[in-house]
Structure formats: structure tokens, C-alpha cells
Amino acid sequence: MALTLPRPHRDDIRIAVGGFLGGLLMWGLGLSPREVTDGLVLVPQRWAVLVPLAVTAACELLRRTRPRFAMLVGTAMLTVDTVTRGSVVTVVLFTDLMYAAVLYGTPASARRIPWITGLLTVIGGVVPAALWRDPKGLLIGVGVGVVALAPAATGWVVRDHRDAAEAARLRAEQTALLAEMDRVQAVTAERARVARELHDMVANHLSAIAIHSTAALSIDDPGTSRQALAVIRENSVEGLAEMRRLIGILRDRGGEHEPSATLTLDGLTALVDGARANGLDVTLDTDHGRVPAPVELAAYRMVQESLTNALKHAGPGRVTVRLTQRDGMLDLHVTSPYGHRDTPRAPGSGAGLIGMRERAALLGGRFDAGPEGALWAVRVTLPVTEGDPE
Are the C-beta atoms of 314 and 346 separated by less than 8 Å? Predict the structure, then answer.
């Protein structure tokens, strides 16, 4: 299987070509840091300088994709260069390979290379000075530091800043994502709240209108029709008033008007009177003190929805509404004769029970609805904060 190398970055190609051409120019001009007369020049041929130069320049093509391999090969070529007349460009290219190995290499390599080059810098300065007993031996350590430690340290600093910037970017993206999630949740919650309010406010009146208009159309009696039309007009006016109030709440950006400002448990008597006018036989029994406004609103809406359901589904008989407060809990119990109709007296969306369950859950209460003997019962328990309502 053939080994396929990744495509080098275009900037790396420019570095490799530019470095090789620059070294070739200096070689052509005869510019070398060492002379043949120097004792360290073991390979005096002029062409020998081009070998480490060419290989080191080729390693620049791998400085991003294979940084560790490129650095190791570059280190070997730098060693070869030291026994020739030498090329300054080869040294410069090696420093870039060292820098790239720290910047683009693995985290482990980025941590180890600066420590290794630092240790070599110390050894390269101390050991020759101790063996030769000449302070000039420290210059070897300085040279190692300039060629290896300095680019490695620079790469570490740049990498650290890059990682910090990337972490900050990720944190900003996460913050934006969380903010968007919070916004979506807030919008969803507000839409659900408006849907509950709209359903509870309008369904009661529209159900009564549908039932009485059906009666007026099916019974050919002027008195019955007049009575039905009176009920229809009353529910239309009340429904229009509540709709205007809801529109006012939605348009009030300051949040000064809340549904609980006018809908309290004191209004249950008027609500029951309206249900009686719609044809229900309703009794109301209340025994409660002051409760928080959200609990008042929820209880009022649940009674309203229960009466609407009784108007649409209940059989002939009495509907009872019982509201009691004890042990920090507000208990609501609404019963109506269990109907046996194939179809309800007025069409419904089926969202009434869902809305009541949501209201109870939002306040940390319990909701249950179902047959109770020959009756249909709605049972709600809402926690009440003692003291003045908020």
C-alpha cells in the first residue's frame, strides 16, 4: 500500500522554495560561516552544503502536517551541516522547523520540546566550559539556545495564546448557544401561557354561544329563541371584553398588567352565576384565605374550564364546585354528572385538561380528572404560600 502524504500548505511551499533558493544563492556567492582550514569542517567539498540545505527545505513542506518528523529530520540535517562549510539558511530553516514542531505538534510534543531544548542549552554551555576550563565554552550553549530553545519557546507562547483564543471562542459559542436555548424556552413558555389564557378565556363563552345558538335553531319557539339570543349576546360581550384584556396584556411591554390583576377567587361567584345563566345547575362552596396571585389565577381558570367542560359534556344534574384551603394547600374539587352522549354539545379542542395539568405542574401542584362513581370529577391541589400574596 502506497504511503500518501497530505498536501502541504501553500505558505509552507513558499517557505521551502524561498529557503532553498536563498541558500542556493548564498552558496553560489561563496558565503559560508566556516572555512576549510577550520578543524570542524570534515567534508570540505562545496556541494556537500547543498545536501542538508535541500533536505531541510523539503522538511518545510511537512511543518504543519508532520511537524515532529520534519523536526527530527531537520535536526539530523543540522548535524550534517556542522561538518560541512555550513549554510546560514539551513540553520534558519531548522529554527522554523523547531518552532512549527511546538506550534503544530501534539500537546505532548509541545510540552516536552521546550524542556529538552532548555536542558540541551544548559548542557551545551556548562559541559564545554567545564572541560575546556574556558568561559568561551558557554557560547556553545548560547548558540544552542538561539537555534533550538528560542524558537521552541516562541512556538509555545504562540500556541498558548492560540489555545486561549480558541477556548474563548468556544466559550462564546457555548454562551450564545445557551442564550439561544433560554430564548427559545422563554418564547415556548410564553406561547404556552398565552395559549392557556386564550383557551380558558374564550372557550367558555364560545361553548355557551354554540350550545344556545343550536337550541335557538332547533326549537321553533320565540320565547326560547329570545332567551337563547340573550345568553348569546351576554357571552359575546363578555368574551369580547376578555379578548380585549388579553390583547392589552400582550401589547403592554412594561408588564404592568397581568391576568391576575382582575381574575381572583372573589370572581368565582360571578363566574358561577354566568354558568347558571348558560343553563348549568351549579353550587359553589368556598373556604379559603388569601393566596398568592398565581394560585388565584390558576384556580379561577381551572374552575372556568371545568364549568365549560360540564356545559359541553355533562348530563342532567347538579354541578358542584368546592374550594378549600388547609395545611398550606388549596384544594379544588369539581364534580358533574357523567355524560353519556355520543358527541359533545359543543365542539372542543381537547386542550382544556392539558392546560389545567400544565397550570398545576407550573405551581408544583397535583391534577387529576376522571370518573368518580356516576360523576366526573376534577381534583386539583395547589401549594399556598402563607402570608400576603406576592
Answer: no
Contact 203, 352 (CB under 8 A): yes
269 located within any domain: yes
The residue out of 126, 151, 174 marking a domain boundary is 174
Q: Parallel, antiparallel, or unpaired for β 329-337 and 375-383?
A: antiparallel
Q: Alpha-carbon distance 278 to 272, whole Å?
A: 10
Q: Give domain status of residue 294, yes or no.
A: yes
Contacts of 295 (CB under 8 A, 6+ apart): 330, 363, 382, 383, 384, 389
| 21-35, 179-193, 210-224: segment of lowest average pLDDT | 210-224
pTM over 0.90, yes/no: no
Statement to judge: residues 160 and 270 lie in one domain: no
Please report how the helices 150-218 and 352-362 are oriented relative to each other, as an axis angle in degrees rounded to 10.
130
User: Do β-strands 318-326 and 329-337 pair in parallel, antiparallel, or remain unpaired?
Assistant: antiparallel
Residues 76-92 have pLDDT tens digits of 999 998 888 889 999 99
Q: How confident is the model at residue 59 (pLDDT cuts 50, 70, 90)?
A: very high
For residue 17, give every residue at least 6 positions away whose Cβ sits within 8 Å of its Cβ, in sequence order, or none: 57
Give the count of domains, the chain: 2
Q: Tell me if 182 is assigned to some domain.
A: no
Domain with 322 in it? 264-390
Nearest by Cα to 153 from 108, 177, 117, 199? 117
- With a CB cutoff of 8 Å and minimum separation 6, the contacts of 221 are none
170/35 same-domain check:
yes
* Of the residues 141, 174, 207, the one at which a domain ends: 174
> What whole-number distance in Å separates Cα of residue 230 and Cα of residue 277?
10
